[in-house]
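Aim 2 progress update. The chain analyzed this quarter is reproduced below.
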Amino acid sequence: MRSMTMRARVRALALGAAALALPAAPARAAASSDGTLSVGAGETYLLSATTRLTALSIAEGGTLAVPDGYSLTMTVDGVETGSVLTATLATATTLAPGSYEGDIVLTVAEQNTATFANVTFPIRQALYVGAAGVVTARSALSAVTGGLVTASGASEVAIVSNGEAFNGVYVAGGGAYALRGSEIAFTGNGRCDFIGDGTAVVGTGAGTTLVLDGVTITNKGVVRSGVVAADGSALLVKNSTVRCLNGVLPADYVPAGGANMLVVPWRLGISGNVRATNLLGANTTATYLSSTVESETWGAFSVDSTSNSKATAVNCRIANLGDEGYGTFADGNVVERLLGCEIDAGTYATIIGASNATVHYGDSTAEAVAALDAELALGLSDAELAALPAQGTRIASRGFGVLWHGAGTLRIDGSTALTTRHTVFLVKAVRATITVDGSQGARITPGDGVVLQLMETDNPGSLNGVYTEPTDDPVRDAGFDVTAVHDADTTASFTAIAVRGDFYNARRSGQNLALAFDGSTVEGVLSASVSRHAVGSIGSAEYTELGHVTNTVQPVVNNGVLVTLTGGSTWTVTGTSYLSALTLDADSAVTAPDGSAVTMTVDGTPTPVAPGGTYTGAITLTV
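Predicted structure tokens:
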């Protein structure tokens, strides 16, 4: 951490009668005259007011308590320390037994509470900001060192914690605050990232606005997130770095959901215990510009349990530092835009987790950024807008590209380059709507040769569940039309692009895959199939097998494949493909690789593939 210009605990800028500073002579709650306090085994010592000491001793079984409705925070030489959760899934903290020496401040602050999943959490923070500015009665100001703190913002400050479940800056209740040129470093576990308990910076509540500019956050701990925006707040992060590393889970922790979710659900096929950022609640906006967001595993740029919200990253680096995790997560009715970004993902570039989520990969053109500035009321200056270089999005995944865990929409355009080790588009028994526009140079490259995989869900549905691979043959549903596009079907359209790779529909029950190519070339197998995992059953121990399947092409049962070629498109068939519908305009063609020929049968009858033709039924294309 860089040195501050002052080691003063808080150098405040007086605003009228309000100056934000730790009192020079706080009440001592009957501490000894030499500034020391000792709490013996079995003793409970009640602190009624903020207390400054030079030495503190707490024996095993001794307790420092505060009145109901208050919280206790200790800093030693400006570092929040000593706080531990009273049990693995407790919400309250206590001070750990031990001996402490130095400039000790025991802050007795009015409690700040937040509720999630019917569990109420008492949240402690260095700075609490409300509608009127910093609320000193709810703040542990001794945890803020260096720099300048005012009612509207803080600059060049540091907040360091090695205790548990402590927050840095918490802005709520319609407050407006800006944190600039500052550093936050937390080591130790948080408690619940759905409400930001243990998070470096939180903005929450309708009308709340929070700006981070030139801020560095480095956290290490279970659910010790960097930034959380929630419940209608507006967050803007510029020129900042957020890095969060996994912590050590309590030995007795049993994976759970809701308020007790300390690890990512293994049913997503990943592991980890901290998300770097999170957007939550209704009508929330979070915008990141020219910033770096990194998580070790689990997730970097997360949107969870939201509605009518907007998450945006422009010219940002979003990365998993370990071998697993996702770059971004889009859950609920959210618009997630990634323009000019670099995404380095462990397992998935993006997970679409619920219906109505929309994700866009594109370029950070001046026009696009100016439109975002106006739409999101970012208030960027002309100089800031001019300083943002126009660039394309570059995505590299050591696993898959985009996973549809829930229904949603993906658009790829501009000069976006999406490269994966495994399947690019992995759709698990939900509706996916995919649009890829290559007219500005966008391209997709699957490392394993599979562009799109539509398959049964292998999610066992519960923490202790086990997915078992079906071994019987699917039964034809006579009432399902495999030649038509239904609302629940997966559709993918490609414009002005060259695509190389295979497309499979391995659904057992009624869901079609509709593929449209306009002014494009596609080289590969486009077919109905049956998919198989390498193992017959998957539980938590086999979580890395999720999504990894091999395909055997077979005639359509309830899994129609509908292919449309327009605008002079060409499909080069590289292997036997089973379709239910094929349409091509007069300028398009179906061909085979050089030296080979393609033949087609429709309902068993040999049929030439003629330009301008439309064919439906049991279609087989053979090279």
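Residues 1-30 have pLDDT under 50 and may be disordered. Residues 366-376 form the longest helix (11 residues). These observations will guide the mutagenesis experiments scheduled for the next reporting period.
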